[in-house]
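Moderator note: this is an archived Q&A kept for reference. The question asked for a predicted structure of one protein chain; the sequence and the answer are reproduced below.
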Amino acid sequence: MKTIIQLIQATFLVALATIGLSVATGLPALPIAGGLATISLFVELPSGALFATPTTNVDAIAKWAGLYSKNMLSQMLNGLDIFKDYQVDRLVSRHGKLLPKFTASGGLRPLDTNVEENGRQERSIGGRKLMVYDAMKLFKIIPDELIESYLSDMIAPGAKEIPFAQWVWEKEMEKLSSEINDNFYFADYAGDAGAWDSSTAYTYSASSPTYKKFGSDNSIYKLLSTTTAGQSPATHPAKWQEVNATSIVTGFGTLIADLITASSLTPVSAAAGSITTSNAMDKIEAIYKAMTVAHRNAGGVIRVSYDVYSKYLTHERSVFPYEAGKESGDGERYVWGSAKKWKIMPVTSMGASQRIIATQFNNLVVGTNLKDTPGVTKTVDTVHGYISVAKFLLGAEIGDLETLYVNDQA
């Protein structure tokens, strides 16, 4: 009788241990019935022992990531706001991809059988090159740090599964997505930055930023003010800014600013100055009126930040108070007088930017390569957990500067 009681007690303890082990190890989707795990953890018992403690396996979360890495990363990239707000090319190699521009010369004229040559260049073919760069994020997973909050807050009463690994990686992908969206527009690629040199005095330049790698993790820092030799990001943090997240790509905000600095793009003078709730509509209209007739007729999109879009709506209500309805803040907006050929589009990734960007629909291109994306494929065990990595390719470019119209605000 005593042996039977001991066996029942042991079975009960092993069942409880299974629940704790599932969370401690990160094993995904363990079935639960009546509060007890129903899978078997019984092992061959050593002599003299009723049961043995099973060997733990602490890399289940990482294995889950490796198994579904391609799917998770593809879903994350396809769900990015920047992939919705711009033209996307998903097959750009590390060698880049030409965004071609074809310009045919005009030549219409009355019939003249004595003329067989136009006497000019027939056409020009050129373009700008879209480059993509490798980016990554490391994930250090220590299950012990996640157990307590997960057990107390995340498991619903009567739950049939413990989707611990899936939950962890979904949240990690959500964070990675927000990091890309939030930093993309003003990003400035600096993955090729050199190492910080203690013997060098660095001179600050707003038009030509200085980036250096520093520290044991090779973090990238941007120079904020001139230094003397030996003034590092560690000793003089006010003179340096860590910019890892904003150095993975050169975003559209930076591309446009660089083009203006290089005199390759001239802002519309009629739209100059700060944007307010009493002039936002006028600024956007000035951009539209500065276009050539051909570009106006071709149609396109005017991208602005949500801040500028809000100012536009406020100004519009003041100009047309009787046209405003409850749907005014949610309906699509077009430049007045454009016959709905020019759509005003708020863009999340532009943050608080005051830039107005008007161009043809497919002229701002985001490049990636889902086919060649390495994904979360490498897992390294550590003493308490493991480290995984997500890798992806990302780039941005403007196809045709001739059809690009902007204001002077950053």
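Archived answer notes: Residues 4-58 have pLDDT under 50 and may be disordered.
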